[in-house]
Each structure stands twice: as C-alpha cells, then as structure tokens.
Design brief:
The protein is of the alpha+beta class. It is built from ten helices and 18 strands. The strands form three sheets. Strands 1, 7, 8, 9, 10, 11, 12, 14, 15 and 16 form a ten-stranded antiparallel β-sheet that branches.
C-alpha cells in the first residue's frame, strides 16, 4: 500500500456528517432483513463480542452495564445483551414495523419488560429522560457493503457528544464501551475469469463484458461501485485470484469519538502480486479485462473477536450462510477496465480517496500517470471519465 498522506475527520466535520448521514426507512421490512438474521457467522461473532464487553465492564466496574442498542432491528443484539447479564437494555429503532417485531421478540424471551424497552426513534432524536443516567455500553450493527454504508460512526459520535453514552475516560482521552470497537475497509484487485450466477448456476466471463452488458461500456469516474447481488453474481463463490495486496481506504474508531475516522488522501493499487508474493508477467499486466476491484472490510467487535467480510472469509462459509451474507451485504466491485482507458505498463493505479457519511469515493488520479519512456516505465493514460 502506498499512501500519500492521511487525515482524520474533525469534530466540526462530524457535525456535518451527522446531518447528511444515511437515514433508514420508517416502515416495512427491507428485503435483505430476513436473510441477514440467518447469517450465523455474523450472529456468533456479535454474541462473542457482546459477551466479552459485558464481562470486561463488570470486572472493571463491579456491576452489570446499562446497554443501548442502536438500530436494534428485530432485537437480536438486545437479547444477546440480556443473556450475558446486562442490567437493562434500551433498543432504538427508526422503522416502526421492525420496532414492533423487536418488542414481540423481547416480550417472548423476557416477559414484562422490566429490563428492556424499544424506542421508535432515530438515534439523533433520542434523548435521556430527566434524571436518567447515561448508558454504559452501546451495541450497534449499522453495517453494509461498506463499514459506513449506514453511517454508524456519525450516529455513535453524536450519542457520545451529547452524553447519552457515558465517558469513562477524560475529555482529552475519552473511553467508551462499544461493540464494535473499530472497523477497517480495504480495496483489493482480483482476477475473476469466471463469475458464478447464483440463480442460474452458469458461469460467464470476462467480468468486464458482463459489467458492460448491464451498465454500458462508458468509462466512469469516480469508480462505479456495483453490488454483486444486483447482477445476481456472488464473487465470494466465484473462481478468483488476488492480484494485489489489500489497501486501506478507511478506518473508523467507534470507541473514541475524537478524530475517529482516518482516510488516506490517495492509495496505490499495484497489480503483479498478491499477499503471497506471486507476480504477474508483463503480458498479464496488459490484460485487465478480468480484473475487478473489490471492497472488503473487517470489524473488531472486542479484543480478539473479529467479523470479516472479505472474499476469502465469506467464500469459506457454509453455502447457506454465504448466500445469506451475499443477500444482506454482498460485495461492492468494479471492473478495472471501467475505470481506465488502457492498462498501465507497470500495473500501478493511483486513486484519490474521499470520505462521505455513507460512502468512500475513489477517483483515478491522472496526474500520477507518466508517459512511456520515463523513469518509471508507466504507460500513457488518458484517464477516466
């Protein structure tokens, strides 16, 4: 990975982010919601993360925590928190239909509602009741194809800044109990000679041809991310080979609201070798028809507890779980040939990075491309768009 420089999102920028963040639907059940509940890998990871966080809190403070479940959905994380000893749990859910489902589920498992409640609200509109103590722990699963698809960081930042979540540190060095603790998003290049259609079971290639058939053959800038689910293709289940190292394009630190977002100004994606060191020949570098850029991420839910959403991890899941993950989140990808007019001779592609509340935008940096015959040997490039 080559990073020219990086920057943290300041508090003033976070205010703006909270005002322009992802807003969920106010009613009805999204199509991805039921399959998401069948993602056993995700469920078990959150179970371990919440269990470890509640245990750590009890050991450090000698009492069970009061837990806030942000975007509680059907109440799964609230139920897990109660199972592992939370003193009480408050779920916040903006979707009225799903909030009712959460109440039904919690009432079945914990009749009477003495240790739980579900509040129908956006988190930015949620306020502590007069005399109510701040919450000790926040659990949240506002994740999608990107770690910021549903603007988790701005929402958690807002709760911390308004004192809804207790700060166990100082103003200068805050400490919050959050699940997850942090997230890291990467982009990696893969050679995907054949992609498997989930509904038909048929393979087709190259990926560039498939992409052009659906989205036209016009070159695009910024990178035209598309979810593999929208093309009924599962990249995690397809034949593929990594042809670059993963490059970090976003890091979010949820347990520290002060400068918790780090974004590089630019990254280099270099074809010609995966993390194992296998190199591509010059002929391979000239052929980018089957090269796709893929967005991947990992979450640290608690120390030693990870939730991974990269092609290798998802591809290793049980097929039913893999399909559930694919329907709920899928992987964003873009054929490299849709981003450039011609291959670069040395296989190096520099992209400028811009952070948005619910997106990470990559744009080909045409200034970084040098002419054939110069000292780098990089081929001439007209640029995207």
């Amino acid at each position: 990975q080559t990073v020219q420089s990086s920057s943290c999102i300041a508090c003033g920028e976070a205010v703006m982010m909270a005002q322009t963040a992802f807003v969920p639907a106010s009613e009805d059940v999204p199509s991805y919601f039921i399959p998401m509940l069948n993602d056993i890998d995700r469920n078990l990871a959150y179970n371990e993360g919440i269990k470890a966080t509640i245990a750590a809190f009890e050991e450090e403070h000698g009492r069970p925590p009061r837990v806030l479940d942000v975007g509680c959905g059907a109440g799964m994380l609230s139920l897990i928190s109660l199972e592992h000893g939370a003193a009480l749990v408050t779920g916040i859910e903006a979707n009225a239909t799903i909030a009712d489902i959460a109440r039904e589920q919690l009432e079945q498992q914990h009749p009477g509602g003495e240790r739980w409640e579900v509040v129908e609200s956006l988190s930015v509109d949620f306020k502590l009741k007069p005399g109510q103590e701040p919450f000790d722990v926040v659990v949240c699963e506002l994740i999608g194809s990107m770690i910021n698809s549903e603007s988790m960081y701005p929402y958690l930042w807002d709760l911390c800044m308004r004192g809804v979540l207790r700060n166990f540190g100082t103003k200068a060095e805050p400490k919050h109990y959050t699940v997850p603790q942090s997230g890291e998003q990467t982009v990696r290049a893969y050679r995907c000679p054949t992609a498997v259609g989930v509904e038909t079971g048929l393979s087709f290639a190259p990926m560039d041809a498939a992409f052009r058939a659906v989205y036209s053959d016009a070159h695009a800038s910024p990178v035209p991310w598309v979810q593999d689910e929208s093309m009924r293709v599962c990249l995690a289940g397809s034949k593929r080979t990594a042809c670059s190292a993963p490059v970090v394009v976003l890091h979010e630190q949820y347990d520290n609201p002060m400068g918790g977002v780090t974004v590089p100004d630019a990254v280099d994606i270099c074809l010609g070798g995966d993390s194992g060191g296998r190199g591509d020949s010059a002929t391979d570098l000239a052929n980018i028809d089957d090269v796709v850029l893929v967005v991947e991420w990992s979450m640290t839910l608690a120390p030693g507890v990870m939730l991974r959403h990269d092609l290798a991890a998802v591809g290793a899941l049980d097929p039913t779980v893999m399909v559930a993950r694919w329907i709920a989140w899928g992987h964003l990808f873009a054929p490299l040939a849709q981003c450039v007019h011609q291959p670069h001779a040395d296989g190096r592609y520099r992209f400028k990075v811009r952070y948005e509340p619910a997106d990470v935008v990559l744009t080909l940096d045409k200034r970084a491309v040098k002419r054939t015959g110069d000292e780098t040997g990089v081929g001439a490039e007209a640029g995207a768009g």
